[in-house]
Amino acid sequence: MGPIEPPITSFLHLKSGGSMKTRYRWYVVAVCFLFMLLHQADKLLIGPLTSSIMETYGIDEEQMGRVFTGALVVGAVFYPLWGYLYDRYSRSKLLALASFLWGASTWLSAVAPNYGAFLATRASTGIDDSSYPGLYSLISDYFGPHVRGRIFGLLQITMPIGYLLGMVLAMTLQASLGWRNVFYITGSLGILLSILIALGVREAPRGQSEPELADLAEFGAYRFSWKAARGLLKTRSLLLLFAQGFFGVFPWNVITYWFFRYLETERGFSSDAVLITMVVAVLVLACGYFVGGTLGDMLFKRTTRGRLIVCIVGVLSGAVLLLATFNVPVGNQVVFGVLLSATALFIPFAASNVVSTVHDVTLPEIRSTALAVQYFVESAGAALAPWLAGYIAVRSSLGDAILWICVVSWLICALFFVLAVRLLPGDVASMRVMLRERASQARAELAVEPGVGSLEPGGKGTFTGLNGTA
Asked: How many domains are contained in the chain?
C-alpha cells in the first residue's frame, strides 16, 4: 500500500505587508503572459524564417540545425545560473534583465553579416531563453497549489500562440521587410517590455501562498541554501521527472524548427495551405495547455498522482495520433490537418503538470533551482534534436526524422511518468510536513515575541522574517 496522501486545502492566500489585492496578482499574470507571448514569438520566429535564412547564407539543413542547437546549448548552460540567481535575488528584477537580454541578442542576430556571425549571435539568444524558472516561482507565490496547473497552463498558452504570432509576422512581413527587419521589431519589443517589468512587477515573499502558512499573519521567509538544493537529489519522483525531461523536449524542438519545411518540401503544401493548417493546429495546441492544466488540478484534488496521470494520457495519445497523422497519404491535406489538430490537443498535457509537480515536491526557496535543473536536463537532451533531425533528413527524409524522434521520445517519457506515479505521494507528503514544521515554529516564535516577524523588505530582493533567514 502506498503512503497516505495529504489533503489539499482550497485556499486563496495572498499578502504583502497586510494584504495583497487580488487584482494585482492578475496584473502580474498579465505582464508575465505578455513577456512569454512576445518572447516565444521572437524565439520561435526562426522556424518560419528558416528557408529565407538558409538562402541568405547559402547553407544546408545540417548547418541550419547547428544554429538551432547552438541556442539550445547556451540555454542549457545558463539554466543552473538563472535558477540560483532567482532563488537568491529579486525574481522580478531578474526577469526584467532577461527581457532586455532578449531584445539585445535578437538585434545582434539581425545584423550578423555571415553564417559564422549568425551562428554565434543566435546562440547568444539562449541566455534569456533559460529565464523562465523564476517566473513560475514568482507566480507560485501568488497562487496556491490547487490552482497552479491551470495558471501555468494559461501562461503556457503563450508558447503556441507566440509560435502563431511569429508565423504570421514571418509570412506577412518577411517578403516586404526581409527577415532581418522582423528580428529588429521583436528585439525592440523585448527592450520595451523590460522597462514595464522593472517598473510594474513587485517581488513576493517566498512561500506566502502555501496552505500550511495560510492562517499566519506573519511568517519567516526562507532563502536559498545549498543544503536544501542538494536535497533535491534525494527526491526520487523529481529525479524521474528530470530523466523524462531529457527526452520530453526532443519532439517540441523537432516540430518547432522543422515542421514548416516538412510541409513545404515533403507534403507539397502551398504557403496558404501551410498557414491554414498550422493556424488551426496551433490554436488547438493552445487549448491543450489549459485543458491539461485544468485536468491536472481536478485530479490533484482527488490524488497527488493526478497531474502525472494526465501527463501519461497526453504523451501516449500524442504518440498514437502522430503516427496516424504521418501515415496519411501525401495529397490528402484535409485528413492530415484533422489528425494533426487532434494530436496537438494532447501533446501539451504534460507541460503545466510537470512544472506544478516540481513545485509540489520542492520548498519555496529552491523552486527556481529545481525547475532550472529540470529545464537544464531537458535542454541538454533537446539541444541534440534539431541537429539529429537534420542529420536523419539528409540520409532518409524529414518526415521520418520528425515521426520517429517524436514517437520514441514520448514512449520513453510515458515510462518515466509511470515510475514517478508510484513515488510521488510520499514526496509530496514529505514536503508538506516540512512546511507544517515551519508553520509551527513560526507560531511558537510569534507567541513569544509578537512584534517579531513582520515582512520587511530585505536586501537584494529577499525578505527578512522571524529569524532573517533560515
From this structure: 1
